[in-house]
Amino acid sequence: MDYMNSKKSQVLRFEVPPAETEHNVRSFLRQEHGISRSLLVELKHVKGIHLNGQSTYLDHPLAAGDVVELHLPEEESENIIPEPIFFPIVFEDEDILVVNKPYGMCVHPTMLHGQGTLGNGVIYHWRQQGISRKFRPVNRLDKDTSGLLIIAKSQYAHQQMAIVQQTGGITRYYEAFVHGRMPEVAGTIDAPIKRKDDSIMERVVSEGGQWARTHYEVLAVYDSFTHVRLKLDTGRTHQIRVHMSHIGHPLLGDDMYGGTREQIGRQALHAKTLSFPHPRHKKELSFETALPDDMAAVLNEQK
């Protein structure tokens, strides 16, 4: 498959190999390339499915060497206001954007935070390139959590990344500072999480909640806190914060879940490493970022 990008549209190109000549256009795209039914229906209505350079139908039979193209139309940004907001770009190509989100920045505009978000900055960044795309985060980070975050640049890329995410193909490691001296070298917290009955934001461990599992590994133990690495099997809201508080070691700075802000002014949590197969060519991509300045300063105080 090849991928072309223009200011007005993106084009996915698939060549039919000899072993797949029993397909029609629909089955070839659905079964061999994982294209969603909803995207095919959308492209059918705008005549965005081409065979050997000509608009075609989904039930058209294919032969070896045929070239099927999907013309993805330019998309509006769902009324997100473009703003020149700085955010570190770790990687970008035609399909995805990987950023190192600063702490204190919301990912998506909301009624309370309509501007100043990562979404506003990303839309501005794309407009400067002369392209219009929807803002489609693949993973989410809390406002005061820093670190690596994936953004899909098309409906196709987002759908492919959703499949990877659902099958556990995105590996994320976080680092955090938690109160107290943890005696175990490593462990797993397997405890369901739900929204607290009297709160919009706060979550709690509860038997009636959604399954959630967090693995942790102790990196270093200091007088008043422990430096840990964490890996998630699930992605529940506030999962790390809730789980670490549940076992008696809330994050430094996380006053919502029992931490204090004596050493740092926000939850000491950073999405440090990330790996996943690329949505187009499926090659494994891996990224790592340094701890942000405020967390690094806490460590430096221990030296």
Gross morphology: elongated
Radius of gyration: 22 Å
What's the total helix number?
6
pLDDT averaged over residues: 91
Order of helices and strands: EEHHEEEEEHEEHEEEEEEHEEH
Write down how many β-strands occur, each being a DSSP E stretch of 2 or more residues: 17
**Which range best describes the helical content: under 10%, 10-25%, 25-40%, 40-55%, 55-70% or over 70%?**
10-25%
Structural description of this entry:
- This protein is an alpha+beta fold.
- The protein folds into 3 domains: 2-73, RNA-binding S4 domain (Structural Genomics Hypothetical 15.5 Kd Protein In mrcA-pckA Intergenic Region, Chain A), CATH 3.10.290; 76-162, Pseudouridine synthase (2-Layer Sandwich); 172-271, Pseudouridine synthase.
- It has 6 helices and 17 strands.
- The strands form 3 sheets. Strands 6, 7, 8, 9, 10, 11, 14, 15, 16 and 17 form a 10-stranded mixed sheet that branches. It has a 5-stranded antiparallel sheet with strand order 1-2-5-3-4. Strands 12-13 form a two-stranded antiparallel ribbon.
